[in-house]
Amino acid sequence: TPAALIFDVDGTLAETEETHRQAFNETFAAEGLGWHWTREAYRRLLRTTGGKERIRAWLAETGETVPDVAALHAAKTRRYVQILQTGGLRLREGVAELIDAARASGLRVAVATTTSRPNVEALCQCCWGSPGDAVFDVIAAGDEVAAKKPAPDVYLLALHRLGLPASNALALEDSRNGVLSARGAGLEVLVTPSVYTEGEAFDGALVLGSLRHDALPEGLRGLFSARA
Ligand code: XBP
Ligand code: MG
């Protein structure tokens, strides 16, 4: 039985990718680069996880160059945080209730994300009006590990900080790369596909239409009603 739920952030807690894309494009414009990532281009670029890595994939694809990828990505992060500070995002259906129910049942809640810590903070402030560590017991972020998803590192870091074996936790994801990462760390995975991941192959995971209580598998609902 799970003692903790480990949530992906982008696409799982909220549909963040259009906001990431907006932040990339506004940053490119502000830097006078003349690049624009359309939805179609971004769908392809999302196969590369991590914003810095995604910019490098774009450079490799187009032959463009920039003096400092890290500085460009830092500007994108500032822009993304600003957009969230104006209240630009809402949690996906069922997320707030699932986290409340998990807490009420004595489960711990964690994050394992490719994005960086400032973006998790901005999302928690935007959607809960609270700092990240008031919402989550553990936060493991992409800028803390050597290899981003689909590598298992960030889930292994979350498990390490929870002090739990993989058999005592459940991962919640929206993407194939996320499923590969969580499965690689030995976790069971529930997937709610998001706008950019609909139609991907989620081998070894249980796919749900949403995280609403009535869409959850029997076992998880039972766990909550028994303890709540
Ligand atoms: C999300 C990502 C991230 C965001 C951008 O993957 O790949 O790169 O698109 O974030 P997942 P940064 O949901 O599987 O964790 O620009 O901060 O890297
Ligand atoms: Mg995701």
Structure description:
With about 230 residues, the protein is α/β, with parallel strands linked by helices. About 45% of the residues lie in helices and about 10% in strands. The protein is built from ten helices and six strands. The mean pLDDT is about 95. The structure holds xylulose-1,5-bisphosphate and magnesium ion (MG).
The small molecules bound here are: xylulose-1,5-bisphosphate, magnesium ion
Query: In angstroms, what separates the terminal alpha carbons?
Result: 15 Å
Q: Biggest sheet, strands in spatial order?
A: 3-2-1-4-5-6
Count of distinct strands: 6
* Major sheet: 6 strands, parallel
Query: Overall 3D geometry?
Result: globular
Helical residues, percent:
40-55%
Which value, in Å, is the CA radius of gyration? 17 Å
Topology:
Blueprint: E1 4-7, H1 17-30, H2 39-45, H3 51-62, H4 69-85, H5 95-104, E2 108-112, H6 117-128, H7 132-135, E3 138-140, H8 153-162, E4 169-173, H9 176-184, E5 188-191, E6 206-207, H10 218-227
Parallel strand pairs: 1-2, 1-4, 2-3, 4-5, 5-6
